[in-house]
Amino acid sequence: AVLYASELYATFHEAMQAQRWHESMPTNALLVSGPSKTADIEQTLVYGVHGPKELIVLVIE
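Now predict its structure.
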């Protein structure tokens, strides 16, 4: 992901207010807290099953 530092918000709540989500939700919103994990198969914990294992973010000042 490539982001501009001037377009970053300190909190998710601040972003929602600044983008005026109360008027209409964006067409997409993605919250990533880390790689996925599952223990569905043989009760063995596996990381990164769905989606990327890592995310590279470039912040442009």
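The mean pLDDT is 82.
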